[in-house]
Every structure is written in structure tokens, then in C-alpha cells.
Amino acid sequence: MSLLRAERRRLFKRRFTRYMLVLVLLVLGAVAVGTFATNHKIGPEQIAAAQRQADQEYQQQARWAQQERAACEQAKAAGIAEGRYPADCSMITGPTRDQIDPEWYLPETFAFRKDFEPTLTILAGILALFAFVVGASYVGAEWHTGGMMNLLLWRPRRLPVLLTKLGTLLAALFGLYVGVAAAWTAAFWGIATLRGNTDQVTSGVWQSFALTGLRGFGLVVAAAVIGFGLASVGRHTALALGAAVGVGVVGQIGVGIALELFDVQFFERWLWPSYLRAWMDKQLVLRDYDSCDFSLAGECRPQEFIMTWQQSGVLFAVATAAVLVAAVWTMRRRDIT
Amino acid sequence: MVTRVTSVLEIEGLRKTYRTLRRGPRQALDGFDMTVEAGQVHGFLGPNGSGKTTTLRTLLGLIRPNGGRMRILGHEVPAGLPQVAGEVGAIVESPQFFPHFSARDTLSLLADAGRVPQQRVGEVLELVGLRDRAKDRVKTYSLGMKQRLAVASALLKQPRLLILDEPANGLDPGGIREMRDLMRNLVASGMTVVLSSHILGEVQQICDSVTIISRGRRVAAGPVAEVLAQHSSGGLRVRLEAVTDLPAAAAALTAAGAQVTTHPDHLLVTGVDKPAWVTRTLAEQDLYLAELAPVTVDLESVFLELTGTAPTAGTSRQVDDSVAVAA
Q: pTM, whole model, 2 decimals?
């Protein structure tokens, strides 16, 4: 317990942790404020205004069609402007009234049932990034500055020391995630109440949100363990950050371009952001518009490749476990020089 | 009455080979032995790259040995380190701390990790002279202040065995003297101190016993006085009023049975029981002394002789150029 307490103090005493925490809260706050500012409550007044705007649009389109039809007939009588108008000027018609949906002219509104779930992905993504860099820095800086060596002189049990650090990090992230997610939900419930609606938010919807939130926490844990593990293997924060840049930017962009050049079907399946999306959105459907999947009615539909959250979960679990095993192995075996 | 000597630290046949892909294997410790008795300040000396730090790190469980046995306070290490760690304070090589924490925070976190009462933090800060700078961040500290903080961290758990690697590094003369006094006080209170240092004058002043290592093997060990005596020639330095008389004096002393080495301004005479014999022998030849003094050896000269690291004019010694003793 004493080591756990010391590690918790150490984690939150670090300036990097504090600064990153403030930055994360500012970013999340900005997202919430932005959402609030760009959404509006829909009432009879807004619906009437949208109706009026749709009517105006319909009339404008009808006038334009009439003018064009007249111009077509004049040109046809004068025998000019061939190719500009169709052979039959009566084909120039405006839209019917029902083709112009008044909903198009409604301001953005935040429907909690429909719009909250994507914000959980944003929350999980930002907190996962935080978990990765703070996890990497927490152990990387300890190695780099000699803090880990000092600690091992006091507690010469390498694995318990490493795993206590990791446990402290994950416990802190769990607390942070729960607190921030609760505040996030409250904030968006407030936004929906003031600038949208909270209609049809049933217990099933809450359950779905909870599961998405849980998958988000899984992402945060994986990011933290991978960042922590890579920095521990390399004994420097830079190794984890370098690996992230290498895999995240160079690898993904390079691999993406190469696969696209070679016309690999569903090339996105080889890129990890697709797995992130599948994990958070339950599934990701990739479509190949260069191929046909004939239906019974003979209709040509693009071929599909479905990535599920389960597949993503296995991939992330294997990657996380591999990095953790490497960190544990190097901690056990390598000399501390 | 039989006095039973208690060893707080015993190393037998310690071996460590570093392996790198680029440079291949390099033997850092080659059957090294060392014993430190309780209640002493024990000097641990060796040239750069001789294996001192490897030995200390291996003792403390930071490096895995390839062979040999080690015991600290009666416990086999590294297996027994968790049991004994609370009684061993150590600083290894240059002091390293998280630069953005204050000294008080640094020690407080270690105290938490080691189940040491927080009040001890203030005590050790006072002891090493950092009380008034305790709240400053470590990055603002000089090397000497970091060294003091390292010593404070080692003393925090009131160890029975204190291992200090170059504790005087970066300290000003006053700090070196304070460190010396501190070590004396610690030993007086029953602590055993292992001191690795390159300041050999300091080691000679403060240490009761010494182990000298060269290329991974022990080349000398024992009480400081014994090590010095073993390497003392027992010779006499002889100067005459006129330097031109030196050849005649050398001839007279050699003829009388002494071994004489001639230097530009003096003679070094060995194989003589009493200094008065030299006075009498030369006086009989009408040669008169300006100086007759016993040649004393110090730890530095013994160290340089044993490790073969004395500088030679016109050559640049490389770090691995030291004496290797036979297995």
C-alpha cells in the first residue's frame, strides 16, 4: 500500500500530468461549448420559419423553371442555342413542393438519443491520447531521470514496482474516466435540454451509451498500457512517442498509399484507424464501389467488408498484451546500468 | 578471548560479462572478492572501468551477475534483497533525481515507498545541509547539492550499511570535510560505510580498510595501514650538500651493502636497518647529509602501482589500460 500511495502522489505531482490534464479538460470543454453554440432548440417558431423558407425556395425554383422554359422556347423559335436546352422545352420543370423538405432549413439541434453516442467516441479518443502520453511519460521519465533506479534501491522487486506503477496509472485513469464521463454526460444532457431534445432516451438507449462508454474505457486502458509498456521497454518516453508517430503517421499513411496504389480491395482493413472506428461504432462497413454484388433482383450493389468491434477487440487485446509482456520481460531480464 | 569478526558484506568470485552485438562480450568482473567488516569505513578503489560500479549495482540487484556469491548483512543477494533493502542505503554513480520535484518531495516519496516516517525527511535534510533549500526544485541544484540530496536519500531509512559511490563528487572543500565528518559520525553510531572514491587522500584519511579492484579482480585488500605497509619499500631518501657528491655517496653505500637507486637530486637507499648507519657510512667518506628521511608511501602511489595506471610522459593511457592479475 505504501508503494501504491507513493506512486499515486508521484503521478499527480508531475507537472506533465497536471498540464496534460488541464489541456484535456480545456479541449473537452471547448467541444461542449462548441456543441452548445452551434445547436438550437427547435420550437413552433423555428418550424414555421423553416416552412416559410421551404415555400420561398419552392417558389424561387418554380420561377426559375418558368423563365428557363420560356427562354428555351424563344431559342427554339429563333433556331439558336442548340445543345443548351433539351429538344422538348416542357421537360424543364421545377421541383414539386413536397420535394423540398422544410427540415433542411431547421437549425442544428442536439438530439441526445441520436447525437450523444458520437461524442463518446470523441471523449474516448481524447482520453486515450492523454492516457498514452501520460503513461509513456510517467514511466519513461522515471527511467530517464534515474527515478526508477532509486526506487528499485528501496523496493528491489522489479515486477511489483513496474506493475504497481501501471496499476496506479490505470486506477487514476479509471477515476478520471468515470468522473469526466459523468460530467460529459451531464453537460450534453444539459446541451440537449437547452439546445435540442432528450426525447426517446429509453433505458435501452442508456444501456447502449454505457456499453459504448465501456468500450471507450477499454481504448483508454489499451492506449495507457501500450504507451507505458513501450516507454518501459525503451526506458525513455521518446520511444513510445516515436513508435506512435512511426505507426500512426508514417506507417498508416505509407501503408494506405501503397495499398491504394496496388488497388488492394478494402485496403482500409489493414489500417488501425478502421479498427478504432469499428471498436467504437460497433462495426464498420467498408464498400468497394468498383465491384458488384448482384442481388436476387439483379441489382448491382458494391461489395462490402464488415469489421466488427469483436475483431477490433481481439486485435487491441493482442497488441496490448504483447507490449505488456515485452515490458515485463525486459524489466525482469535487463540490467539497469 | 576469541574475537568474532562479523562481515556485513561478502563477495566471492563475482563474475559479470556484458554482451553487446557490436562489441561482443566484455568481462567487467572476473571472479572478484570483497569483504567488509562491521563498523568500518571501507574504501572501494579502482580505475575507471575497473568494475566498481558494476560491483555495487550487482550487489544492489540492478545488474544480474553471471556467477559468484554475495551476502549483505547475512542475506544472500540478490534473492534476499527485499528482506535486507530496508537496512541498506545506497547511492550509485552520479545522483539522479526527477528534476521538477523539490528535495523534500523527492525524499517524501521515497519515504512513502519505503514505509519511513515523514519526520525523517526533515531530519536528513538538516543532516546534509539542505534544510533551507528543501523546497527548491532539484533542477536548480548544483552537482554538490544533488550529491547531498543523494546522501540524504541513502540515509533516510537509517541503514546499517551505507554504500556511497563517489559521494564527494562535486562537493566544495567545506562539503568534503562535512561529508568526512558525517561518515565518521555514522560509523561511530554503528553504521558500516562502503565508500567508492577517486579522492585517494580522502580515502586514506577516513577509511579503516580498503579493497582495490583492477579489470574486474581484486588486487589488494585489508586494513589501510597493512596495504600501505605491504607496498612500502622501507627506503630512505638521501640528499647531500653538493649534488656532485651523489655518485661517490652511491658508491660508498653500495660498497657497504645497501641497495641504492640514484635520482638526479637524491639517492634512494634500501636494505638498511637503521638510518644512523647511512650517516656514519657517508661521514666516514667525508660526505655530509643535507636530508635523511624515510620514504613513506601513500594510498595514491600504492593505487597507481597496483593498478598500473600511473601516468607516463608522452603516452595517453586508455581507460582499459590497467593491471590484470592472474586468476
A: 0.82
Q: Tell me whether residue A302 is in a domain.
A: no
pLDDT in tens, A153-201: 888 899 999 999 999 999 999 999 999 999 999 999 999 999 999 999 9
Q: Residue A68: which domain range?
A: 46-105
As given in the structure block, the three cell numbers for residue B104 are: 523534500
Question: Of the candidates A7, A15, A151, which has its C-beta nearest B100's C-beta?
Answer: A15
pLDDT digits (tens, 9 = 90+) for B245-304: 899 999 999 998 888 888 888 898 887 878 888 899 998 888 888 888 877 777 777 777
Do B63 and A337 lie within an 8 Å CB cutoff? yes
Residues forming beta bridges with residue B259, ordered by sequence position = B270
| Chain A nearest C-alpha distance from B195 (Å) | 17
Between 3.40.50, 3.30.450, 1.10.287, 3.30.70, what CATH number should domain B236-294 receive?
3.30.70
Chain segment B1-57, per-residue pLDDT in tens: 444 447 899 999 999 999 887 878 888 999 999 999 999 999 998 888 889 999 999
Using DSSP bridges, classify how beta strands B192-196 and A196-197 pair: parallel, antiparallel or unpaired: unpaired
Q: Name residue A222's amino acid.
A: A
The verdict on a CB contact (< 8 Å) between B62 and A335 is yes
Rg value, chain B, Cα: 24
Phi, psi (degrees; rounded to nearest 5) at A70: -65, -45
Cell of residue B118, nine digits: 515523514
Q: Strand B161-165 vs strand B259-262: parallel, antiparallel, or unpaired?
A: unpaired
Contacts of B82 (CB under 8 A, 6+ apart): A155, A156, A157
ipTM: 0.77
Overall average pLDDT of the B141-147 stretch: 85
What is the grid cell recorded at A313? 477487440
CATH 3.40.50.300 fits B7-230, yes or no: yes
Cell numbers at A248, concatenated? 500512426
